[in-house]
Amino acid sequence: MANVAPLPRGCPPCPSPRPDDPAADTGPAPRDIRGQLRLGATWRLLKPYWVSDDRKAALGLLALVVGLNLALVAANVWLTNWNRVFYNALEARDFAAFKLQLAHFCAIAAAFIVIAIMKQFYTMMLEMRWRTWLTGEWLQRWTSGQAYYRVEQSHGADNPDQRLAEDLRTLASTSLTLSLGLLNSVVTLLSFVTLLWTLSGPLVFALGGRTVAIPGYMVWFAVLYAVAGSWLTHRIGKPLIGLSFRQEQTEADFRYALMRLRENAEGIALYGGEPAERAGLRASFDHIRENWRWLMIYTRRLVFVNSGYGQVAIVFPLIVAAPHYFSGAITLGVLMQIASAFGQVQGALSWFVDGYASLVGWQAAANRLLDFQSALGAAEAEHAARDGLRGIALLERDRTPAPGAITAAGLVLALPGRNERRPLTEPFSMTVRPGERLLVTGPSGAGKSVLFRAMAGIWPYGRGAIERPADARTLFLPQRSYVPSGTLAAALDYPSPPGTHDDATLAALLRDCRLERLAGQLQRRDNWGMRLSPGEQQRLAFARAILQRPDFLFLDEATSALDEETEAAMYALLVERLPRAAIVSIAHRSTVARWHDRHLRYRPVHAAGEEPRYLPAPAALPHPV
Ligand SMILES: Nc1ncnc2c1ncn2[C@@H]1O[C@H](COP(=O)(O)OP(=O)(O)OP(=O)(O)O)[C@@H](O)[C@H]1O
């Protein structure tokens, strides 16, 4: 995970492209939308849930929450009326009425408490329902078509984990809070606007020899005041959207750096890398602090506008209504009532000003999701473009040119880049027939693993077509196989579901793979990827390959951590247990050669000083040393 570029002086409020992005220095930079208010696009993020399969339950819950919200407003009105009656009873020293009103109060308070609890409870329920649906949908896209891999490879979006975990939560919860707040404002507005209209009467003045009358003029003043306040708030507060976006990014980068320290604890401890790590973590935290400084500055401006707006709102109606009062048109009581109604109307109209800070966080989270959505879209397009229109085609065929074989024709492997893709190889062709064993060798960095990735359909960069029998099962074992946490039995069964094979089968296989020490620990839960030695993990991967019974098995330096004798035992086991499987091995060690019957060698074809380029071509098998 990369660090964020420090904010230059003068603060561009939005993060600049990340320095580690390989595409950052090529091609025109895309328009930066991360600090924008994008209501239309955000609406398209919110809408799908409300038209999904869950819509009935969602709309039912929403109706309930809205109803409870309105009931709370009604309870407030009830309380206001109770106030009048209660104080009148006190003033009249009417003890019987006093007792009755106390009983009323108990009823109002009980209703209030019950409604408030229910409102909170059902809002939380709706929030989690929405979040569950959103998370399910986004996880589906994230884990389909190797999008998680493609987005990482292309540096399409920083910290996807934070976007899936936090931004989706913020989207669901803040959308509900903001929209319920808006509803309350509308209800309050409707309740008081007629009162203010009636109380304030028309404003009559002469203009160019004509008499002009503005009915309900205080309402218009309240609208003007709120519009001016909203405009000013947005002007002053807009940079906060970009800053909030960046704050989330820097926080997530810092968390990720801490997580990497944990994950690589052993390597760092062995290097004695604490000072370097500490410096890296401090630098990462500095980005948080630096951005926070700008957040403070812009928040100070926003609070200045907000509180100024709130303070002026206290005297504004009095000033506007004062001419009527001084002309004797209204009494002091009416003036005060106008001021109070104006306060209610103006308060309702100020939903935008008052909620701006929440709106900023909400829009920043939505922008991060929109950004993520376009990275996912690009990954999906890349996956769909495996037909070769825009890269290497991976075609699953009922009949391939050589029966049952994987064939590659006119293949050019290239490196990723936004506009220009640097070719790694000259065009070449190859065939892997059922049951044959092919050794792939070449200099480090020549593109051998890239060839495997292309065969697996996760490397679209380049040209040409790979044809694979549609019913063929392929399995790729990298140098460090993925070992999930959980029971050892589940790690062996992976990617099949846990319990696919019984413990006796697994224990026998572990013994065959020279892991008898682990045979008694099949049901033990552990972080096996951290606990097992690299050589043990490679043997575990062999065991898994035998269980999966692929037709084509690709081994990318899968025995690099084994001694030669164990390596030979593992290959012998593969040949014995998977006699019909084709085996394609990438290896630097010549001892591996004896298990193969063909050889594909990457031969350099570039001149000295040029960008490296290779031609993979058939060659004689190397002799074991
Ligand atoms: N995601 C990526 N983005 C940019 N370049 C990449 C990416 N993945 C690999 N490369 C580059 O592609 C080239 C080929 O990598 P590859 O892993 O295929 O080499 P290799 O032949 O398997 O090397 P080795 O024998 O050392 O394992 C290397 O220069 C590598 O840095």
TrEMBL record:
InterPro entries: AAA+_ATPase, ABC1_TM_dom, ABC1_TM_sf, ABC_transporter-like_ATP-bd, ABC_transporter-like_CS, ABC_transporter_sub-D, P-loop_NTPase. Keywords: ATP-binding, Cell membrane, Membrane, Nucleotide-binding, Transmembrane, Transmembrane helix, Transport. The chain crosses the membrane at residues 57-80, 100-122, 178-200, 212-232, 302-326. Residues 406-625 form the ABC transporter domain. It is found in: Cell membrane. Its main location: membrane. Residues 1-33 are annotated as: Disordered. Residues 63-361 form the ABC transmembrane type-1 domain. GO terms for molecular function: ATP binding. It is a multi-pass membrane protein. This is ABC transporter ATP-binding protein/permease.
